[in-house]
Amino acid sequence: MANTVTSLCCVVLAAVVVVYAQRRSQTGARIQYERMGGDVTMQCGSLDSDASVTWKVNGTDVKALHREEGSKLILMEVDVSNNGLYSCFQEPDGERRDQINLRIGTAPREPVVTCRSNTYPKGFYCSWHLQHPTSIPTDFQVNVLHNQMPLEATRDTVHKNRCHVKFPEMFSSFPYKVSVTAINALGEASATVTFEEFSIVKPDPPEKVVATPIPNNVRRLEVNWNSPSTWPEVESFPLKYFLRYRPLIRDQWQHVELSDSTTHTITDAYAGKEYIIQVAAKDTEIGTWSDWSVAVHATPWMEEPTHITPTTEQDLPIETTPSQAPPSAKHNRCPNVMYIPMEEMRSPLFLVCTC
């Protein structure tokens, strides 16, 4: 039993050592960045150029188009499929001499930069992105100038390619200049945008849009919404709104522009038709319209159908039976009564009036 436990402990310890060695070899490897489409030369440490070595990639033989020249491995026309951990072993003892973590990518091109103020007059934010991915880690540097003075740009904690800037003053006539530089191991590229304060004001869409039918009115819908919560001073900087709506059966929108109200009653809806409704917002003096709000659906009030009581057996006229005597003529509204004998009928006797 003791030998079994000892053996098991040795196996576990060996596995731990292997895992540790693998992690150490991964972290200890040097990174080599190379351009897409070119040839790549990897040198096995500090060995002489005529040393005899064997190369592995991710623990297996190198199958990509390549050639070996002494202590060098040359890959031809590389792309991202050549990424991997390359190891070289010196012959004849097979001792590992070097590890290279190869990463293939491209130098960045000019980033696309846009700036917007959705919290006017507090500040604005700028976002950027690369139209062409680099396939390797790329960092960005941001510089903001206003009236030749640098402004602090705070990086966003959620959106990695976004920064926030506070307005140094209100209603400034001096333009802002924002420069973003993309940098990686293969190169760098910059883009600059210049703008005036008023041109980048754009609120977020209105929130909590609700459309409800009006009781007993088949052509009306009442629409309500809230100002965007990101807009800090609605009273000092009021917003106006743009509402659009259409029935689902049609493609053409109808539009209504409102001064500062956050409610509107649609009075020309088609009875019984489902509608789609959206709202946009804009500062009353400056900037541009926001994007449309989340679409809501609503149907005008629909009248309940008139209830029709079905006919029951209790509502049918009472039939006479053969044992009953026919009513006398003086109690019958019809003066002439004709009797049909039972043998000529398949149903019980009926009184037949001929007036």
Summarize the entry for a quick read:
The protein is mainly beta. Helices cover 8% and strands 39% of the residues. Strands 1-8-7-3-4 form a 5-stranded mixed sheet, covered by helices on one side. Strands 9-10-14-13 form a 4-stranded antiparallel sheet, with no helix packed on it. Strands 12-11-15-16 form a 4-stranded antiparallel sheet, with no helix packed on it.
List the helices and strands and how they pair.
Blueprint: H1 2-28, E1 30-35, E2 40-43, E3 53-57, E4 60-61, E5 66-69, E6 72-75, E7 84-90, E8 95-105, E9 112-116, E10 123-129, E11 139-146, E12 149-151, E13 154-155, E14 162-166, E15 176-184, E16 187-195, E17 207-213, E18 221-226, E19 239-247, E20 254-258, E21 263-266, E22 275-283, E23 296-298, E24 337-339, E25 351-353
Parallel strand pairs: 1-8
Antiparallel strand pairs: 2-6, 3-4, 3-7, 5-6, 7-8, 9-10, 10-14, 11-12, 11-15, 13-14, 15-16, 17-18, 18-21, 19-20, 19-22, 22-23, 24-25
What do you see in this structure?
It comes from Umbra pygmaea (Eastern mudminnow). This is Ciliary neurotrophic factor receptor. Belongs to the type I cytokine receptor family. Type 3 subfamily. Residues 1-21 form the signal peptide. Residues 107-204, 205-305 form the Fibronectin type-III domain. The protein has 355 residues and is mostly beta strands. It has four domains: 26-105, Immunoglobulins (Immunoglobulin-like); 112-200, Immunoglobulins (Immunoglobulin-like); 207-298, Immunoglobulins (Immunoglobulin-like); 317-353, no CATH class. Helix content is 8%, strand content 39%. It has one helix at 2-28; strands at residues 30-35, 40-43, 53-57, 60-61, 66-69, 72-75, 84-90, 95-105, 112-116, 123-129, 139-146, 149-151, 154-155, 162-166, 176-184, 187-195, 207-213, 221-226, 239-247, 254-258, 263-266, 275-283, 296-298, 337-339, 351-353. The strands form seven sheets. A five-stranded mixed sheet has the order 1-8-7-3-4, covered by helices on one side. Strands 9-10-14-13 form a four-stranded antiparallel sheet, with no helix packed on it. A hairpin with a 2-residue loop joins β15 (176-184) and β16 (187-195). The longest helix has 27 residues, at 2-28. It is elongated and about 95 Å long. The termini are far apart.
